[in-house]
Q: What sequence folds into this?
C-alpha cells in the first residue's frame, strides 16, 4: 500500500485482519486488508494477557485502526472492533478454512496491483460477512468469491457467450485457459464438457444468485469447484496453499 498521500506520521484506516504472525515474545505482525490495499503493521504487546487489543486483532475481525508510520513496518497504535466475524467463523471449521483461503487469495491478488483495492476490500468484506452468517454453503461462498475477485482483477470469465467469438449460449464446452464457455466452431482441444447444470451453477456463483446456487446438487458443486480452482491457478500462476485445507460440506 502506498502511503504517500498521508500528510502526517499517523493515519486511520478501516481494515479486515487477514492473518497474524508472532514477533518476539509479546508482539504480532498484523496483515490488514484495507480499502487502500494491504498493510502490514506491528501490534506491540498484544500477546500479553493484559492487552486490550489482543482479541480485537485476530484473523477476520473488522477494525478501525490508528497506525503510526514506521521505517519498515507501521505500528498499530489503537484498534477498535467494528465486526467480530472471526469469533463467528472459528465456531464452524469449514467456514474457517474457507476464510483462510479467501485471505490468501485477496493478499496474492493485491500483491502487485492496488488499483482495484477498494473493490477487492468490499468484495472480501461481503464474502466474510456472508460466510459468518452460515446461511449459504461455505464452499459456494468461496467459489463465488474467487470468480468475482478475478473479475475485479480484470479476468472476468464468461459462462453464457462464447469467449472467443461472442456467440450467445448456452454452450456445452468450457475452456479454463480461455476463461469460459466456447461454441462448437471455436472449441479448442483440451476443452471440458461439464454438465449443463454445472455451467448454470457457475453463472449463478458469478452473479451471486444464491437461490439458484442452493438448488445445485453435489455433482455440479464438485465440477464447478475444480473448474474455479484451475481458473484461479491459471491466472495467479501459482497454487493457493490454503485451498488444499478447505473442508467442504
A:
Amino acid at each position: 500500500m502506498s502511503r504517500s498521500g498521508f500528510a502526517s506520521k499517523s493515519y486511520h484506516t478501516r481494515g479486515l485482519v487477514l492473518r497474524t504472525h508472532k514477533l518476539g515474545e509479546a508482539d504480532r505482525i498484523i496483515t490488514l486488508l484495507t480499502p487502500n490495499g494491504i498493510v502490514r503493521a506491528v501490534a506491540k504487546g498484544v500477546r500479553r494477557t493484559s492487552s486490550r487489543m489482543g482479541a480485537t486483532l485476530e484473523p477476520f475481525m473488522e477494525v478501525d485502526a490508528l497506525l503510526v508510520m514506521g521505517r519498515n513496518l507501521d505500528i498499530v497504535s489503537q484498534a477498535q472492533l467494528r465486526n467480530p466475524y472471526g469469533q463467528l467463523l472459528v465456531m464452524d471449521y469449514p467456514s474457517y478454512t474457507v476464510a483462510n483461503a479467501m485471505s490468501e487469495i485477496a493478499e496474492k491478488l493485491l500483491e502487485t496491483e492496488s488499483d482495484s483495492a477498494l473493490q477487492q476490500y468490499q468484495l472480501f468484506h461481503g464474502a466474510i460477512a456472508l460466510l459468518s452468517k452460515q446461511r449459504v454453503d461455505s464452499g459456494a461462498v468461496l467459489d463465488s468469491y474467487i470468480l468475482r475477485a478475478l473479475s475485479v482483477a480484470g479476468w472476468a470469465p464468461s459462462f453464457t457467450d462464447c469467449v472467443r467469438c461472442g456467440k450467445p449460449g448456452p454452450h456445452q464446452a468450457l475452456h479454463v485457459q480461455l476463461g469460459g464457455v466456447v461454441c462448437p466452431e471455436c472449441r479448442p482441444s483440451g476443452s471440458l464438457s461439464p454438465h449443463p447444470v454445472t455451467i448454470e451453477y457457475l453463472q449463478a456463483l458469478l452473479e451471486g444468485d444464491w437461490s439458484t446456487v442452493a438448488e445445485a446438487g453435489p455433482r455440479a458443486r464438485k465440477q464447478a469447484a475444480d473448474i474455479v480452482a484451475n481458473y484461479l491457478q491459471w491466472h495467479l500462476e501459482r497454487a493457493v496453499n490454503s485451498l488444499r485445507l478447505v473442508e467442504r460440506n
DSSP finds seven helices and seven strands in the chain. The mean pLDDT is 92. The longest strand covers residues 10-23. Helices lie at 85-89, 93-109, 117-133, 138-152, 196-207, 210-215, 218-236.
